[in-house]
Amino acid sequence: MHVTYIALDPRKPGRFTTPFCSLLFQPVYVGKGDKYRARHINDVLKDVDAKPHSGELLHDWCVGMRRLGFTDVPIISLDADDEDHAFDMEGVLTRFIGIKPEGGILFNGRHGGIGGWVMTARTKELLSHLNTGENNPNWGTTWSDERRKKWYATIEEKRKAGTNKRTPESMSKAWEANQKSYLITSPDGAEFVTNNLTIFCQDNNHPLSGFRKALKGDGVVKSGSKKKSRIEGWAISYL
User: CA dist 163 to 102, 120, 157, 170, Å?
Assistant: First the structure.
């Protein structure tokens, strides 16, 4: 089995969306190979004598993380139909996220894929499926003529200004903006700090919607349902 994998930095939580998946930490490297290939990153973190990773940038990052006490990092594996498919996904991701030599955030020395940005017919079909029919975020939405004209006008303005292309700088700013920390305080004064509100709510069986609504208001959870009554009076704010 072939996979395309994404190594993540556990020190940098946030929200990052790619064409294939959403991530809860900043991506640092994209690779491909068999299902055991990604293990080598954590091997280097665990063992000083481990064979250096073939990518110099990534190896130096692994050594630095090991010195900080990390023995493993999160790694997301995406199953591929075959080796060509794995190559294609790697190329899509490195171009989308950006590599260090070009001002991006990935510790890849070069773009992935066969010859860089080449996709097989199968991958093109899969990408098309992600945005076709009910998978399209605008599925079932009817745009008014006014909204349509406004959208086209905005696109034209960006094209003329040269701001319609995603630059490494804009991606970096977007990533920083998506990193949030929350201070949550219970009615009895207990304080919790989290970088991931969703996981906090899942771990403590709290309704996420209650905290999200409070963030939009005065920061205090109001009881609006049986579930929300469990956290009525809790306070939440950004750090």
Answer: 18, 30, 9, 10
17-21, 70-74, 201-205: least confidently modelled range: 201-205
pLDDT at 13 over 60: yes
DSSP class per residue in 89-110: HHHHHHHHH-BGGGT-SB--SS
Q: Are 27 and 5 in contact (CB under 8 A)?
A: no
Q: Six-digit token pair at 178?
A: 């998506």
Closest CA to 75 of 30, 15, 111: 30
Question: Which tens digit of pLDDT belongs to each residue from 148-187?
Answer: 788 778 877 877 776 655 555 555 554 554 456 788 888 8
Quickly count: other Cβ atoms within 10 Å of residue 69's Cβ. Answer: 7
Helix 39-46 crosses helix 56-67 at what angle (to 10 degrees)? 40
CATH number of the structural domain 182-238: 1.10.10
Q: How confident is the model at residue 27 (pLDDT cuts 50, 70, 90)?
A: very high
**Which DSSP category does 133 fall into?**
G
Q: Which DSSP category does 45 fall into?
A: H
Over residues 80-90, the pLDDT tens digits come to: 877 778 888 88
CA 46 – CA 51 distance, rounded (Å): 11
| Average pLDDT across the chain, whole number | 77
Residues 182 and 191: their CA atoms lie apart, in Å, by 10
Report domain extents, the chain: 2-130, 182-238
C-alpha–C-alpha distance, residues 97 and 8, integer Å:
13
Sheet holding 75-80, edge to edge: 22-34, 2-17, 75-80
